[in-house]
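Board work, copied verbatim: Disease resistance N-terminal domain-containing protein
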Amino acid sequence: MAQSILFSLSANIATKLGSFSLLELGLLWIGFHEELDKLKDTLFAIQVVLLDAEHKQYKSYAVKE
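↓ predict structure ↓
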């Protein structure tokens, strides 16, 4: 009798810990995607600035010298 209670209790704890771990993993995954989106935005902004500088280089004589 005591064994079945302990087994049931341990199974319940394992299930709850597993659910908590999956929730944590899901939150980490969402955070990773948010950071990845921020990085993409930053890299895009850098690309725009570099392309603009390159364009100005070809248009402006002062930048060439």
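DSSP finds two helices and no strands in the chain.
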